[in-house]
Amino acid sequence: MSDAAGFHEMREPVVEKIVVHMGVGQGGRELADAEEILEAVTGQESVRTRAKATRPEFGIREGDPIGTKVTLRGDDAEEFLATALELATIERTQFDETGNFSFGIAEHTEFPNQEYDPNTGIYGMDVTANLARPGARIKRRTKATRSIPGRHRLDIEDAISYLEESYDMEVQ
């Protein structure tokens, strides 16, 4: 049912998930520090990422641990996104054709609960946000997969207006 203004709850975009990634390039103490920082910033246990291919020019072999990531969903994702968007500037070029976007945070010390430690150093992180409309799961589910009509797909303009209204920010 729609109201007089034409609003329908199934048209309102939602944050499906947020992936926060820190690429270190090698294992050892630096990777352990990155894991600790990421867990403190997100409040969730991190998962190590491994090299997909051997890159001799960087001294990386396939299967070596090179980074860490956390996937946030639901309220945790929305809370983290609200905090992270205050620290970043988002431009139109950072959006893909389906309304998802990515941005970087140069220093972990910008987060409220983080302080600079000379023994640890400063780490940056990448944040990727997946936005969709309710019901988008039908294109990925195991049984009875269906395509989503074009009028229900999220696009760049819908994603930008959602961010500007919901998170009180301006996309450049």
Summary, kept brief:
This protein is α+β, with helices and mostly antiparallel strands. The protein has helices spanning about 30-40, 75-85, 155-165, and strands at about 15-25, 45-50, 65-70, 100-105, 125-130. The mean pLDDT is about 90.
- SSE run: EHEEHEEH
Q: Give the averaged pLDDT, no decimals.
A: 90
- How far apart, in Å, are the first and last alpha carbons? 34 Å
Profile the largest sheet.
Answer: 5 strands, antiparallel
How are the strands of the biggest sheet laid out side by side?
2-3-1-5-4
Helix content: 10-25%
Measured on Cα atoms, how large is the radius of gyration?
A: 18 Å
Task: Describe the fold and architecture.
With 172 residues, the protein is an alpha+beta fold. 23% of the residues lie in helices and 20% in strands. It contains 3 helices and 5 strands. The protein has helices at 29-42, 74-87, 156-166; strands at residues 14-23, 47-50, 65-72, 101-105, 125-132. The two termini are 34 Å apart. Belongs to the universal ribosomal protein uL5 family.
Helices and strands in order:
Blueprint lengths: L13 E10 L5 H14 L4 E4 L14 E8 L1 H14 L13 E5 L19 E8 L23 H11 L6
Antiparallel strand pairs: 1-3, 1-5, 2-3, 4-5
Keywords:
172 residues; five-stranded antiparallel beta sheet; structural constituent of ribosome; alpha+beta; Ribosomal_uL5; rRNA binding; 50s Ribosomal Protein L5, Chain: A; single chain
